[in-house]
Request: fold
Amino acid sequence: MWNRLSPTNSNKLMLDHGNHSNIRCNNNSSTITTSSIPSRTGAAIAGALCAARITLEGPEPPWMQGPLKVAFLGASGVGRTSILQQFFKHDFPKTHVRTSRRSVYRSCLVCDTCIRELMVIDVPPQRRFPVDNLAEWNNGHPLGLRTVHTYVLVYDMGNLETFQYCRSMRDQILESFNHRDFKIMVVGNKLDLVSETIPHTQELKDISTLVRKHWRCGYVECSAKHNYKIGDIFKELMGYPVGGTAPKLEFSQSIRNKNKCTIL
Reply:
């Protein structure tokens, strides 16, 4: 998925040890001969010369692309903040507190030898997605919604009316951008309440089919209360489709080192 710098794709250094060190990089460059230079000095010069010529093909690896910016959006009471609190702080709020201002969560994700800095913003429910940068700034409280890489739309699986908010917000996001790359992901929270309330088996299947096949977006059903499949949300963000060909990865995070680095 991502190119990584390794001895197999970098220039190989070849040294002929001796009083006179011949230094050569096997990238079709000419041989450089250094006379009267000790082997160690010659090796240092060779390393510098070869390192200077190392180039990476294709897109930059994740750790050179800056933080992955993600925005969690959803109607009131769907559990956006609960998902983030569970993932970043291993805590589930016992009482519902309405989100009244923008919150930012930062961490570092490690997934199958890939590492990426993560910045997640949790914002109050928005009536309208800002159509341009001017509209966002004129709002009085800029939220930074137009500069993120991925939009995560959360709905309550026990209250399917909240999915209409996700549908509306998706349409507004698509209409507001013309030439910008971004991703949209849908998360169904409160899976544990589905069996306790009136079952919506067919409706939930229709939503899953709509999101996966027609919208072609990532889709995860989870329970923030029981910490069920919360890690799968962030696997999707890292580019590993849940239930696909990606290797099975376990979610773990040290309580002592929370908010520092998360291993998926």
